[in-house]
Each structure stands twice: as C-alpha cells, then as structure tokens.
Request: fold
Amino acid sequence: MKKVWKNWSRDVLIAMISLVFVAMIVCCVIMLTGYTDELHEQAGTKALLFITDTSGYLDDSLNTYLYKTGLAAEKLNTLETENFFEFSQALRDLTLEERFSNVCFSRFFKDGVEFDTTTNVEYPTSDESSTVVRLSNRGEIGFAGILTDRKYNITVAAFCAPIKDCEFADSIVLYYPVGDVVTLAGNQKTDYTESARTVLLCAADGEVVNVVGDSDDFGVQLHDNVYQFLAREINDKSVTDNLRDTILKNELATYPVLIENETHILSVGSAGGKDAPIFLIGIYRAIDLYNAEYSTVSTILGALIIFVVLMIFFVIYFFVSRRRTARMLLTIGDIDSDLDCPTQKHFERESATLISRNRGSIFSIVVIEMNHYDYIREHYGDEFTKRILLYLKLIITNSLKLDETYGYMGSGRFVLLLHDRDRDALKDRIQILCGLAHNYRADMPQGYHIELVGGIYEERQNVTNDVGKMIDLALEAKNALNMETDFGSFRFFSEHLKERRSLNEYIEMNMNSALENKHFRVFYQPKYNIPNDRPDSCEALVRWYNPEWDEYMRPGEFMPLFEANGFIVKLDKYVYEQVCTYIEESVLHGEVLYPVSVNVSRITALQKDFLDYYISVKKKHNIADRFITLEFTESAAYENYEGLRDTVNALHQNGFKCSIDDFGTGYSSYNILKEIPMDEIKLDRFFMLQGLSGERDMKILESVIKIARELNMKVVQEGVETPEQLELLRRLGCHVIQGYYYSKPLAQSDYVTFITEHFKNSDFVNRH
Ligand code: C2E
Ligand code: CA
Ligand code: CA
Reply:
C-alpha cells in the first residue's frame, strides 16, 4: 500500500514539474516575443532618428545650392545687358567663375520658354523639367528636382531663381551634378550610412538617383526603380504599398520587414520640399541597430536554452531514476547474491525481450554445468566451489556478444542466450569456454580439471516460444544420458532426443518389473590368455530381454539412466548374485569353469553396505577366492583414491580380485596405478582404435603395458577384433585379450559350451 502511494505521489510530482516547466517555457516565449517587438520598435525609432538627421543634411545641402543660385540671379540683376545674347553670355561667364565651377550647364527662361546658354537656342521643356517651368512661371526660387537631361544625358539637380527687371529673362536655372548635391560629406556620414546595408536616394517617381551609403549589399544600380527593387527583396506587397503612400505624402516612416529571412528595418525620409521631393530609403539589419539590447536578448535566450536543457535533464533524470528504482525493486529476486549474477528468473525475462527485439536473429539457449558440482562442493567446500563458479562467470560474461545474456541457475549450472547463426560457430564458442574452464588451475586438487557439460536448445527447432520451456529442453538435451554427445560433453536438443525421452520413460516404468520377471540376463564374454593360448576368464555383461520383441537391449541403452536414477545399485547386485549362482551351480555340476569379472558401478561401490553385501553373497554361494574379479571404472577412483584403496584392500582380504576398467579414458590414469593395488588393468577399446594408427600411439600402448607389468598387474586389452591386433598385443607383452575376435558376449549356456570346447587339460578350472 505504502509503495503504491509512493509511486502515485511521485507521478503527481512529475506531472506538476512538467506542467510548471511547460508554463515557464510559454511565459518565456511570450516575454521574449514582446521584448523582440519592443526591440523592433526601438530599432525603428533609431532608424527614424537617422533618417530625420540625414534628410536635414540633405536639405542643408540643397539650401546651399539654392543660395548659390540666388547669388547668381542677384549678380545678373545688377548687370545691364544690351540684348538676349549678352544676357546669355553673362550667365555662361558667371558659371565659369570659381564659386560656380561645378555647374554643369545653365539655362534661362523667358515667357515660359527655356533657352540654352551654350547654343542660345530655345530648349524644349520636357516632362522631367515641369517643376522648372512651374517655378519659373511663378517667379520663385527653388529646388527643381533631379532629372536626367536629354541633351547631355546626365543626371543633374536643377535649381531655379527669378531675374527681376530684365527684358531678356524671367528666371535662370543652374544644373549641378547630382552626386555633388546629394552626397553626404564628412561628419554627415554618420551611423546612418555606416550601419546601413544600403541608403538610396530616389526621385519622386522612384528612380534611384544616387547610392548614398558607403556600401550597397544589394547591387542597386543608378536609374533602377526603387519600388521594383523593394518588391523583389521584401516580397510583401503591403509593405511596398505603405511605402509608396509615405513617399507620396512626403512623410518620414520606418517599417520592420523580412529580408533574406532576417528582420530588417526599412526607413523612408524626404528632402527637397513639396515641389521637387527626393527620397532617402535606408535598409538596416535590425540587430545592427540594437546591438546592446540584442546582446541582452541573446543572454536571455541563452539562459532560456540552458534552462530548457536543464529542465529536460531534470525530467529525464526523474524518469530514469524511477525506472532504475523499479528495476532495483525487481532485482531482489533477479540477482544471485552469492555470485552477483542474474538468476534464471531474470535471464528468462531478459532473453524474452532480446529474442522479441531481434526477430531477425536466431538464438540458442545453452545450459552449461560444472561437472561433479555436488562432489566438489562436498569435498572441497563452498569457498573453493564459489571461486570456480566466479571464474566460470568471468569467462562466460567475457564471451558474451551484443544482445546476448546469461544467468545462474544454481547447482553449478549457468544458462546462456547466444546468437546461433551457424552451429559450428556456436560449437566453437562453447568449446572455447570448455577449454578455458579446463585450463583453470588456481589451487585445484592435483590432476583435476573443470569439465563442462551441457545441453543446447536451438530456436530453429521451433518447439516452443517460451524461454522457460527452452531451458527445460536444453536441460533435457544435457541429461539425455543414454545418448551420444554432439561434441565434447554437449548435446543439441533434437527430435531424436524426444524418441529417447519416451524410451527412457518406458525403461523407468518397466525396470522394476523386468528385474522381478528376470528379464535382465547375464551374458558372458570369454577372455583369451595369450601366452597360455587358452581361455583365461570372462566378463559378465548384462542384457535386458524384451519378451514382446524377443530382443536383447544392450547396457548402453539403459545404464546411463540407471546410473542417474540409482537403479544401477539393484541391478549390479542382481547381476553379481546371478554370477555367484552360476559359479556355485557350475562347481556343483562339475562343469568347466573360469573366473568371472563383474562390473561394479561407481554408485554401487559408494553404497555403505557395498563390502558387506558383496562379501556375504560370495560366502553364501561358497565361491572360492580369486574366482571373482570386480571391475571398477576409473571415474570411481579419481574422485576418492583413499576410499577406493580401502575398498580394494578389504576386497583382497576377502578373496576378490580387483580390476581397473576402461583404462586410458579417465583423468589420472597413471596416478591410479601407483595409488591403488589393483590386480588387473583393462585397457580401453580406445587403444585398439588408435593404438595402431601411429608410432606415437604405439609407444603409449607399449609403455602402459610395460608399467602395468612392472607393477605386477595382469594386462587385459578390450575390444580386440582382428588377428593383427592380437599379434601386436602379444608382441607388446599383453597377457589377456577380450573382444569379438575371440568371442562375443554369450548367453550362459552358449558360454558354457564355448569354454567346454576350448577347455584344455592343463587349465585350472574349478576348485579341487
Ligand atoms: P565394459 O565393461 O567396457 O564392457 C565391454 C563392452 O565392450 C561390452 O559392451 C562388450 O559387449 C563390448 N565389446 C567386447 N568386445 C568388443 C569388441 O571386440 N568390439 C566392440 N566394439 N565392442 C566389444 P556392452 O555389453 O554393451 O556393455 C557396455 C558397458 O555397460 C560395459 O562396458 C559396462 O561398463 C556396462 N555394463 C555391462 N554390464 C554391466 C553390469 O552388470 N553392471 C555395470 N555396472 N555395468 C555394466
Ligand atoms: Ca567391464
Ligand atoms: Ca571396459
């Protein structure tokens, strides 16, 4: 309840923080927008100030030229000229004086008709010069505008002044280069022009008559039309319309506009008076006009961005920490505290996620188990076992690739989710793990190596989608005792394995009744004594008779299962009793008889009553000493030499012989020879498969036989199938052979027939 409340209150907190966060952002945006508007307004005012100033400068300049023209008119008034030509000459001479030196040309009016002073002929008044005509008619002094003269083809500023009491002229007009008149000079070129992207001077109709500023970013040319230029750059008709209005009304104004996606300020101002207005158009980047303020804005913006980033981090942190807490709550059951690694439960969940996230990949579930875990823990303690497991964990985690995972299942067992694009690559990876485990040396008991066993379920088998079930199937593959491994001690899950499973079920269901109904039958495989050329003894091998099919099942089919379920103990005792009964009866009937070897499994040998039972049964059946040999497999020995030595000694005292079976396949073959006083050594069939194939293998076989002989042990070679093998063994000094070459395992009656036929008088056959 407390947890739910805690989660709920955290949710509310996060919701509130998010809300505050959103509200703050909205406020900041509103404030910033307001502030930007205000800044635009400020920039507009600044531009307006500039344009007012500049218009003033221009007016001053125009007035200077007007004054000069007035001076010229006064001078002409005082001159008494005789005729029209003299007047014309006088005006031309005047303009040659230094103070009028920049006059381009001059003209004068008489009765509304204009005359040129250079040609003295009538000059046709044009549209451009209508203001000149108007002023002249009115007899007023004034700026007559900027016009392009047709005769000289130059743009000029025209200034008009009346001539009084002169019969040849009513007014004069002086034409000055427009650049001289409207160019801002020296200190007049202030911030207005310097900070502008362009400042254009235009005539009333919009013709650009001068580019005033120091620079022009837009490449405007003289005579361009300013309306066209603005329409092109601004692309907002309402702005250009407003502008035209302002110009026509001869007003001052500024507009914020967007040029090249950036806020600019457009300013308009006029000079020259009502009759012949000229216009100044200035274009500024807004930020150039409010530099200081803009940096404030950037600071605010920067702060806002930092704030936003911090808030985002804050929110992310909240969610992440929440998830982590959630995960931590889960991990209580997800981590094996001892090894500090994921449990099976966690593994199952994570694997399910990885599998569904990587639909294109094929995975395998691999169960890897440390062999003899229980035994090692029992004998070497928890700390020692934990060190091994931590080493296994280390090599496993190091081997994992992206999107793979693992978990610890307990009892020395790990489970892995591995990519399985091809089987061989997977095998290699597992074998590398096995190799690394094998090489682990830190304080291992002498001669012992970690052995890994396991099972693999491949996703491509398509039996189930449930990771838990996949693990079960991998385990089943691992535990498929009576099946060959696929590589090392590993098995893949397969359909075949399923058949095995049902066979196992059959075996487990029927083993007890089979025992009761005497369906387990003992076969005897005769052994041949090489130097004496006669039967030596035999080995009792169990078969399971199936009356339904009238067939015998070989121990390979059921022994591993019996070893796992403990039934082997009952079966071993049963076989042993059968053998004892046979010997007893054989003696009673005076039949030919040779010593018999009986297999004793590791589990049977480890039973508390093992010695008592085997000794008492021998006694019960009156078996003479040395007639029974017990065969122990090497694996029984390596785990506990001392225990086995005691057992062997006790057996010797009670008239048993002891043999070490399957020699050459185990772990510490040579140690066992030194440690335990065995009577016989049975070389594994492995030597027959490999012993003849090369010089080196021959040497090994030879030296094993030599050592055994030196230790006074009888040497028996199993699995001899050919006369060549026999000859080789004879040469190497092997005493006895067992194998198909001499005889297969035979049913009791067949065996008796066999030895009776091979019996030689010299043989020691039964007790007398
Ligand atoms: P093992 O003790 O090594 O027995 C020898 C096995 O080799 C027997 O297999 C035998 O039939 C087989 N064999 C003998 N000569 C040849 C040969 O020339 N070529 C080949 N390829 N094989 C040969 P089997 O009877 O199938 O027994 C298998 C194993 O089952 C035995 O191996 C033994 O470990 C176990 N076993 C048999 N009976 C008993 C029993 O009563 N108790 C216990 N604990 N184990 C038994
Ligand atoms: Ca054997
Ligand atoms: Ca054997």
